[in-house]
Amino acid sequence: MNETQGSWFTRGRLLLIAVVTAGIVVPGVLRRLLGEAGYNDLGMVVFVLGYAGMVLVVWYGWIRPLEINGPDDQQH
């Protein structure tokens, strides 16, 4: 690795990995375990809530702060 580029594990990437792990991997594993234990509906609810929570965190943390505007002055 080129030393001038720095580490691959930046703060943003580590945070993204943590959010995806908490929002998809953990609820997915819990859904599987609950499904095997006979609680398939509860497992589905756990997964949906985990995924929806991840979507809200991504929206609130990354998408909401973006300023998406068109051009300020329009020339006719």
UniProtKB/TrEMBL annotation:
Pfam families, per the entry: DUF7996
Domain of life where this protein originates: Archaea
Spans through the membrane: 12-30, 42-62
Entry keywords, A to Z: Membrane, Transmembrane, Transmembrane helix
Protein name, entry field: Uncharacterized protein
Organism: Haloferax elongans ATCC BAA-1513
